Amino acid sequence: MKEYRDDFPMLDKNIIYFDNGATTFKPKCVIDAISDYYNNYSANAHRGDYTISYKVDVQYETARKKVAEFINADFDEVIFTSGTTDSLNMIVDGFFKNFLESGDEVLLTKSEHASNVLPWFKLSKESGININYIDLDENLHVTMDNVIKAINPKTKVISIAGITNVVGDERPIDEICKYAHANDIFVIIDGAQLVPHKKVDVKKSDIDFLAFSGHKMCGPTGIGVLYGKKEFLEKLNPTRLGGGMNESFDNPNEVYLKELPSRLEAGTPNIAGVIGFSAAIDYLNKIGMDNINNYEKKLKSYLIDKLIKLPYIDIINLESDSGIVSFNIDGIFSQDVAFYLNKYNICVRAGNHCAKILKSKTGVKNSLRISLYFYNTYEEIDKFVELISDKEKIMKEMI
Amino acid sequence: MDSELKREIILDNYQNPFNKDGKDDLNYEKVNSNNESCIDNIDLYVLIEDKIIKDIHFNGEACAISTASTSIMLKNIIGKNVIDAIEYINNFMNMINENDYNEELLGEGIAFTDIYKQQNRKTCVTLPYVGIIKILKKYI
Q: According to DSSP H, which parts of B16-139 are helical?
């Protein structure tokens, strides 16, 4: 996929970027689309009395249509948010807060990102719902057996990542949704690490709610998506109220809200973000999500094959098949390795990657994480492996 | 001091940190030091009597720079009275923040005089200082 590297201004800066799980670089077409908005039609949305605002409306709603097609949703099932975190908070606070009763149970796993844990913890304190965890198998994966085992008559929600950000395992979403729905259980998918890397079809998978972020898929920061089945979005209370989402209001008893999707997008939206995101989706469609997914799997295998030959490397997620590899170098604190690699302009992440309850399962508090994207190359992996092949050199140069 | 010697001081304090064994003693005051931008997380166990720092131990997970910095800080402030310890800390922080400082007061802390060249490691060096200052302030 080298042919796409020239599209990214950040890739001509002699940097090897392996932190795509945190955020991705932006192709020039995305940057240009944002610039074009600010340079040539920089008006607010929903004020279509003049030409440039009308153009904003068209671009904004075209973006929604593109996102809907990208995940096979209906147009009014796509709500623009500031990102996955915002979307998940809206789902929990706007929908499940009213829907769940004390004693109802929500199933998570120990490898969820903070964004899919803390909103539930808060609701648990407020409403007395119980939080339980689907057991992870020896590879830290979710199996259908363990999902079924975790479900009891009180279970009302399963809220899990499609692909997790540390282990990088892909969950069997289709099967989970099928089983859950047969038992009247909602399924929420945190798609932050899934949607940028694999074709998602919300209808085929029968997902109830899906959350994802633009910036992890070549789009700008500050823009994300909340997908929900229409019947559920209709019942999702706006967590923010204000302009753009109301029909009319006179007094506290007479407030009339707009229809979906506007009802859930109060205030001036992130117009530049939406327009940039729209360009990112065009870009990913041009490459093809299947091509992206296949290439990342090949890159990941190539990396793993090299890493397992180094005796002092402990790979936490050997069996997962996304582009995420988490590992430690025996006897060296992960952050020191990251600092060492930074001296050679290689960007990797060290830490707990916002999955702070995972440590109770793995016993490993911190790790290094490489998260690949389609613009990474075999040569970059060679260079990285060469640098970590010499433990003495790491010890010498890490400070 | 050449940079190779500074590196050796840091590495030595990382590999053989001073008093990195925690302290299970109720007379010791415990304080946690961590920071948002990195994953270092240490606990300091401090014994102060008559405004004199009698003893400090630490434990936790931290990078080479944080661990070495903690080890060096302990060596330099144990035995000092609180006022002198704060003076040591202020002088050290002046060095880190590229202000005027007295090199002679730094002890092994001199190993970090080049750290300003790596701005992203400033938080590592200052990690133990964030914690200790919380305790010392209570005694002035």
A: 64-77, 82-96, 122-136
Give me the domains of chain A, ranges plus CATH numbers.
Answer: 29-286 (3.40.640.10), 289-397 (3.90.1150.10)
pLDDT in tens, A196-212: 999 999 999 999 999 99
Chain B nearest-CA distance from A350, in A, is: 8
Q: Which of B11, B39, B68 sits opposite A351 (nearest CB)?
A: B39
Which phi and psi angles does A84 have, rounded to 5°? -55, -45
Mean pLDDT of B73-86: 96
For residues A202 and A238, give the distance between their C-alpha atoms in angstroms, rounded to a whole number.
Answer: 22
Complex ipTM: 0.80
CATH number of domain containing B16:
3.90.1010.10
The answer to whether the CB of A158 falls within 8 A of the CB of A186 is yes
- Spell out a b/e string for B27-62, using b for 16 or more CB atoms within 10 Å of the CB, else e: ebebbebbeeebbbbbbbbbbbeeeebebbbbbbbb
Contacts of A352 in chain B (CB under 8 A): 39
Least confident range from A120-124, A300-304, B21-25, B77-81: namely B21-25
> What is the rounded average pLDDT for all residues in chain A?
95
Q: What percent of chain A has pLDDT over 70?
A: 97
Q: What is the pLDDT of residues A368-392, one digit of tens each?
A: 999 999 999 999 999 999 999 999 9
Residues 349-378 of A with CB under 8 A from B: 350-352, 365-366
Q: What is the DSSP letter of A234?
A: T
Element (H, E) at A161: strand A155-161
Contact A133/B at CB under 8 A = no
Q: Per-residue confidence at B27, pLDDT binned at 50, 70, 90?
A: very high
Sign of the Cα pseudo-torsion (A147, A152, A153, A156, in order):
negative
The pLDDT value recorded for residue B119 is 81
Residue A354: active-site member: yes
Residues 6+ apart with CB under 8 A from A7: A27, A28, A29, A283
Torsion angle (degrees, nearest 10) of CA A328, A330, A333, A338: -50
How far is residue A379's CA from residue A11's CA, in Å, rounded to a whole number?
14
Spatial contact of A314 and A339, defined as CB atoms under 8 Å apart:
no
For residue A294, the model assigns a pLDDT of: 97
Does B121 lie at the interface with A, CB-CB under 8 angstroms? yes
Structural domain boundaries enclosing B82:
3-139
Q: How much is the pLDDT for B34?
A: 81
